[in-house]
Amino acid sequence: MAVDRIVWKILLDFFVLLCGWIWESYTTIGVFTFGAACQQLTSNMTKFVIGRLRPHFYDFAVLVCAWYVGLTRVQEHYHHWSDVAVGYLIGAVYGVLVFVYVLKPKKYGVPSVRRSWAEREAAPQSALPRPVLAR
């Protein structure tokens, strides 16, 4: 009789623990899904109101993120300001070198932003600045 009570107690504790874990997982996934839905709704509404993103939006976003990371590293005393400035300089130099020597924009030409959809479809695929085509 005592063994049965111990077994049932262990099973009950396990069941309570499992139910708690399932509930925590459900709420965490629910919060994540709600946040993802809000983000997607905001993004879709912005695209509908403004139109498509401008050509240099992602370049600007990357620069702002790099600037923010550098400032927070200095503010939290992880790095000295001169180290961050030299890191920016090194990153800019490598970015320019990769753009000029790997993408080779002069060879293929910079794609025009003002071309129509039909002109883009009619253009040959080799006109795109891809590193694979440069080899």
From TrEMBL:
This is Wunen. Belongs to the PA-phosphatase related phosphoesterase family. Pfam families: PAP2 (PF01569). It comes from Operophtera brumata (Winter moth). The lineage of its organism: Eukaryota, Metazoa, Ecdysozoa, Arthropoda, Hexapoda. Residues 29-99 form the Phosphatidic acid phosphatase type 2/haloperoxidase domain. GO terms for cellular component: plasma membrane. GO terms for molecular function: phosphatidate phosphatase activity. The keyword Protein biosynthesis does not apply. Its main location: membrane. Keywords: Membrane, Transmembrane, Transmembrane helix. SMART domains: acidPPc (SM00014). The chain crosses the membrane at residues 57-74, 86-103. It is found in: Membrane. It is a multi-pass membrane protein. It comes from the Eukaryota. One of its GO terms (biological process) is signal transduction.
